[in-house]
Design brief:
Elements lengths: L6 H8 L4 E5 L6 H8 L5 E4 L3 H9 L2 H8 L8 E6 L6 H12 L4 E7 L3 H6 L8 E5 L35 H7 L3 H4 L3 H23 L5 H13 L7 H8 L3 H13 L3 E4 L15 E4 L2 H7 L6 H6 L1 H20 L2 E6 L5 E8 L2 E7 L11 H8 L7 E5 L5 E4 L2 E5 L4
Parallel strand pairs: 1-4, 1-5, 2-3, 3-4, 10-11, 11-13
Antiparallel strand pairs: 6-7, 8-9, 9-10, 12-13
Helix pairs in contact: 4-5, 7-13, 9-13, 11-12
Amino acid sequence: MFNRFVGQSFEKDFAKPFVHILFGARQTGKSSLVRSLIPDPSLSYDFSNPSERTRVLADPGAFIRECEALPKHNAAHFVVVDEAQNVPAVFDAVQFLHDRDKTRWRFILLGSSARKLRQTGANLLPGRALLHRLMPLVMAERPTLPSGESVTSLRLEPPSAPRFPATGLIERLSYGELPGIATMAEEDRSGILRSYATIYLEEEIRREGLVRDWGAFVNFLRLAAAESGGELNFAALSRQVGLSLPTVKSHYQLLEDMFLGIRIPGWAGSARKNLVSNPKFLIFDTGVRHAAAGLKPCPDTVLADPGRIFEQWVGIELWKRLQYIGGKLHHVRSKDGREIDYLVEREGELIPIEVKWTDRPTPGDARHLVDFMKNQPNARSGYLICRCERAQQLGPGITALSWQNL
């Protein structure tokens, strides 16, 4: 078992007398992480198993009776429920039991989709639950060998060994950062990623009855993945796939609810009035993005459009870190075309970040950073993330960094 960045903090949290809800996309390692932290739960349910799901759906009271049958003793009984969103009534049962005795049971509810919970108005146990998220791997978990200056305020301390095997940039851009993919033989990765983008999505979406026309959704997904990293244009995509505007918006929301999509809002905190507020949208992992777009996840796909994929990977990495340490991620674009790829807002500080597929950055590459920082007193440091060998000063407060030192 490779250690995860959040492993120690989860272990401390799970000792607290709350219900714990852990959300994350499929294959981000939720079940594996919980098994490593709670190897021998008193009860374990997996609602991705049709027979177990059907049994509890047919008799929701069985869950309560089985928990109550556990003998009373000083230590709390851990009860782990995987894919809990498939039986929304289990949240009410957990509340009933937790309110009766906060120390007898310790419930860990895992979920890979919030769609059904949101649509059914499921009880997410306000005031009783701690909500956790698990992301695909961040660089601290699957390292390179960074050296020199870095975006210090966004760095994550690596978990204790063992960490996932270190790897290079092209491999990350080609196959993404899902834990299972990272440890798999390279010749198997493309096929597994394509299965993830078809079999898993079809199973999850059809089981929950989330879309009426599966074929139309597949066409939508392919175009949405191909456009990943760009600003959302619902009207244009609606025309391309032949779906109504509300349906297209609903499909994008579905990707977010399944933790497969990341919406990055346009920044509107400037006094200047010429900013564009359209959000960007990213598929949560570059390997899944390729497969969902109908492309083969491999180095050739990356090298056909490296700059665009590199920009997406940097945005995904920043977003994952901010989910763990707190903060917001934006992008900035003015109506006259000046753009900053990403803007981190954290603890009162603004950190503008540009991404360039170059190993020879120049001050001209940082001109939009210079312009932004002149008008924003809270932006004291800006960064150009690229492939340079060593850090370079491109202007006052602006540093070009290798992706390895992100």
